[in-house]
Amino acid sequence: DALVLMPTGGGKSLCYQIPALIRPGVGIVVSPLIALMEDQVSALRSLGAQAALLNSTLSAHEAAQVIRRAKAGELDLLYLAPERLLQPQTLELLASLEIALFAIDEAHCVSQWGHDFRPEYAQLGILGERFPGVPRIALTATADEPTRSDIVNKLGLPAARLFISGFDRPNISYHVGLKQNAMRQLLDFIRSRHPGEAGIVYCHARKRVEEIAEMLQREGIPALPYHAGLDDRTRSEHQRRFIHEEGLVMAATIAFGMGIDKPNVRFVAHLDLPKNIEAYYQETGRAGRDGLPATAWMVYGLADIARLRQLIQSGGAGEERKRIEQQKLTALLGYAETTSCRRQVLLKYFGDRHEGNCGNCDACLEPMESWNATVQAQQALSAVYRTGQRFGAAYLVDVLMGVDTERIRSFGHHRLPTFGVGKDLDRNTWMGVFRQLVAKGLLGVDIEGYGGFYLTEDSRPVIKGECELTLRRDTIPTKRSGLKSRPPAKAQVNLSNEQQQIFDRLRNRRLELARELNVPPYVIFHDRTLKEMAERLPQNDAELRSISGVGERKLEQYGRVFLEVLRSE
Asked: The pTM is what?
């Protein structure tokens, strides 16, 4: 038995696919999504493996054929959703088979502390009881210590060996900025950094997803929406198009993405804060699975922080669960607000070490300033207290800056000692102070009223002057803020102009072939393989065979087609 933690794109699937091929019997793979199963089965078949799936998309005849092949010992791997596996008839089927192993993919779904808990996953401990002699391997890209412990306990894997290969994705460039005009910022980011390339844009609201997709389409960027409010047929078609087409952007809620195996997603953008670092890491990990340069880009603001704090407090979970969720959110906010290397902060959360100065995040490329804001924090906290702990940031900033409005006069707040004490700072700086005070947990948000701030117990040492407070100095983003130090990702693949033209022709031929065969383009060859072809220009089977990603079966299937393109150069 084993528990495997490996970054997205790091080769988790090989950890069970190879043993399933080598060991006698069929490997049973528990997978959470139909699209993920279909994707993996398609890829395995293209490599010559005997793989199949059992799910609700199959007709009765097709399901019967899969069962027949399984009983006849003709399958190497069989993919099942946890709901299907737990059905009595499926357990009876498995009892009649010789089983090589059980692989539980996306194992963080087992844990209530994970970011994508699914109750059916928590029942998979039954596999150890029903099939005590069969090895089980649980795999995930995201699991902190509490989540790992929960996986081991729920699945009954006390003796499982733990394999952690590290969480770093060095090809991903991390950028986090302040939300000003999020739609315009997104458009500028895509045009300047990833024109014509595939990406995913995440936000929380379904309506917002639709608006983003429509805006991108109006601006000439191919885009589709994906959220739980769409009917099943539309969601399936949009996901199919994203996987099969090149250069498509998917605007989505978190309903989209788990198990998406598309290797050439060049960026993942967040227009809202995720709930925690595990969710952020999982979602950003969908970029750059092929190892080529990719970008994780996010903008956020005070409203995002307040909304997430409210969601946790107003949820129906118990106090212990709320406490842990608040801790996880605080860790994410620490990552967002950091002035040091983002990669170092991100990896430290998962218990992984990094020396910092990665050279591939905004904090390293354009170091951020920090400042001693103890006095200003005391003034802000005093304004919250003296106005009755019932107002939001915009009103409090007016008080601090001495803005003489009718509303302020109506409450008599123009007579407060804090009125006008903050005239030396501009509005954006004060908004940044309040944002960071909420992020650090020194201010809470009143969820019962109108979202006003109140002092927390943690604010006491700051108010009393018992500690100093250092904050990040905000800068107003420019059109290419956080990105100007690096050229677009296309340029980072280190191809000459001539090689880039060859690479583009190889991609076009791959797309034509994929459409003929009705498979995703990357099932034929990854971008990384085409890049190597463009660099080395193989002219015969022996030279093509030496390219990474070209095995005997793919050479036999596709070699002639791609050699025709290469020989014409």
From this structure: 0.82
